[in-house]
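Notes from the 1:1 (GR / supervisor)

We went over the backlog. Supervisor wanted to see one worked example end to end before approving the batch request, so GR pasted a single chain during the call. The sequence is below; no edits were made to it. Supervisor asked that the structure be written out right there so they could see what the output format looks like.
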Amino acid sequence: MAQSTHETTGEQVSASPAAFVFTTVRLSIVFIILCGMIYPLASTALAQVLLPAQANGSLLKDASGKVVGSALIGQSFTNQAMFQSRVSSIGYKAEASGSNNYGPSNPDMLQRTKDSIAQWKLDNPGVPVSQLPVDLITNSGSGLDPHISPAAALVQVPRISKLTGIPADTLEALVKEHTEGRDLGLFGEKRVNVLKLNLALTEMAK
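Structure output shown during the call:
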């Protein structure tokens, strides 16, 4: 009798295929609801409460309230009376983030650099090429960098002062005012957001 009881309790009952399918479907539905609905809605709501500007794309507006761009994405400024951004091999297209990763001896990159230097000489005849910061003639890894170095902003002051009539020392103070420090005081380099700087310049020019 004891042996029979031992043999009975030791038997393993295998689930039927139908039960296995039902369990799989049930778990899938639970995870779809949790990960595909509840989590995205909760994280979106939390972001809108805690960091609404960042959650909506860090958009920047001009004095009239019109959205003119994002603080996270660089753009081209054709007006020489404004501060110029870094070179972008993708034309600042946010949907095409990246670069062509040319090596230093690549003929296309060398030609692009020569063209950038020639344009600099044309637009800034009073500033020698020896004072030209390298970030103004090189592409960032993403092609969308919205920042330039403080030196790259300050070296453009003579041109902008001449075209706008704003004193150079006033423009230099504006650049320093918009110079961002290292993250947490340790990481990265000091930088200037070109769009923010140009928005301030536009207001100053008025």
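Supervisor's comment: Confidence is low (pLDDT under 50) at residues 4-8.
Batch request approved.
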